[in-house]
Amino acid sequence: MATTMRSSDALFSPLEIAGGKITLEHRVVFAPLTRNRCLPLEKDDPEAAHYNRIWVPDALVAEYYSQRTTEGGLLISEGIAPSLESNGMSGVPGLFHPSHLAGWKLITSAVHAKGGYIYAQLWHAGRTTTSPFTGKPSVAPSVVPMEGDSGRAPPGHSGPVNYADFPPLELTHALIRSTIEDYCSAAKMAMEAGFDGVEVHSGNGYLPEQFLSSNINTRTDEYGGSPKERCRFVIELMQGVADAVGQENCAIRLSPFGLYNQVRGEQRIETWSFLCEQLKKVIPRMSYISLIEPRYEQIHSYSEKDQYLSSQGLDPATINLKFLRKIMGDTPFFSAGGWNDTNCRGVIGSGQYDALLFGRYFTSNPDLVERLKLGKSLTKYERDRFYGPFPDRERGYTDYSCWHEQQEKENSNGSVTNDQSIRVAEIENMFHAGKLFTTVSALKAKRVPELVSEGVGDQIIDYTTQSPLRVLPPQSVNFLFDTTGEAMNLLSLVVASTSLIMSVATQPSGAQLQDLGIMDRLGKPKLPWCILIGLNLVGSGRKFYAGRSAVEYAF
């Protein structure tokens, strides 16, 4: 039970977003992740004006998103540039060129084909990019360049460039209006491409948060000088996007206590409280709000973060997002930042958040939702394959296996594999089963962990020492996981019409077959054809017998 998360956990309960237009089947959200796997638009023409500056998603990117899609699940796209000058890295896609529309339709179609939902995250790098990357000057609320170098070589350069050599332009009022128009145009294109909504990235030190941060925004006009004025750009931006695509189709991401990209603004509580109050007032039907956990820090220096928070009069040990949860009221409240298969348990049930975003573990576990639900171990992510571009784009991107595929490889010596065994937790959830039990002998006990996820069984009875008919009352079991012979003897225990019996062994006795070594692969028992015919006849008879008791029987 230590690693198993039952389907009864609130993490796997439905959630309405988008003003009730969308009902998610679970609350495990695929976080926005920059992967730099898109292709250059003019890859074959080095003399083209935007060579290696406009990047387009293709079929490989569609496969990546499709692999991580579940029925009724929500995915948030990687950061998408709403304009040429807003992009900060090679391999990052946009939503401002006709080729982008066609490319993103591949992704949204793939997600919808599997019953999922996907939002486009609009991302403007602001001062964190430079003109060598985009071909245009970068912009920011004030002429306050980043310190250090870009860390990556722009097109036409052999190495990183210094930010100080390419300071950003201060956004004039006219440029502020045109920047908001870029966002709105990108949002409309996103909806045309089939996205279910748009999320405006207003955290992690990118353009919107640059306006919110006093160490970057040094303006003295109506866009700077106090928490109220520093919030003006973000509020006007969100109003514009909401007007463009509808309130219920827009969302926002914030990092109120983040330090990423050299954000060191003061008055954190006052600034983000005012911002959320205004957002709730002017966009009351906003789809959701997504926030990065205060405890999580992308600069990978928690001592620096603790020191900074303490300098602002904030206690690093107790700081949380409850004050914003209260302000946002019934707006779905998402949390991102360091969630894994251990610390996510019970969080949704506590009422602290409405959904949790998973990022790094989704990169290496395309079936993360199923793994969390069934308590399967997670594949460790490869940090050095997070960010491309790479010549071998698929490696560390679309080449990860699902848990049952991994286990099949590990058990290639002939033991029970997951695609051949009975995935009881899924069946139990499908039939909304209540009580589940199995009877096993001592000889079969070693097979149970291979067939039943840990913690799934409500009761395990060794029928060599106890009789289930004496231990359990009649019609008290919803799901019977047993051998064929025992299943028929225990029909009186099963609730009629609403239950399922699943047989996992054949006759002769399971113990004999295991001893003979011919039941190593349950899907393909090595039995003579005459015995197989006899077994099928027996199975048909038992199915008829079970049907008389209004119980479904599978052999």
TrEMBL record:
Recorded GO MF terms: FMN binding; oxidoreductase activity, acting on the CH-CH group of donors, NAD or NADP as acceptor
A GO cellular component annotation in the UniProt record: cytosol
This protein's UniProt keywords: Oxidoreductase
Domain of life of the native organism: Eukaryota
Listed cofactors: FMN
Keyword Transferase: no
Positions of the NADH:flavin oxidoreductase/NADH oxidase N-terminal domain: 11-376
One Pfam short name: Oxidored_FMN
Record's keyword annotation contains Lipoprotein: no
Family indicated by similarity: Belongs to the NADH:flavin oxidoreductase/NADH oxidase family.
Protein name stated in the entry: NADH:flavin oxidoreductase NADH oxidase
Organism expressing this protein natively: Paraphaeosphaeria minitans
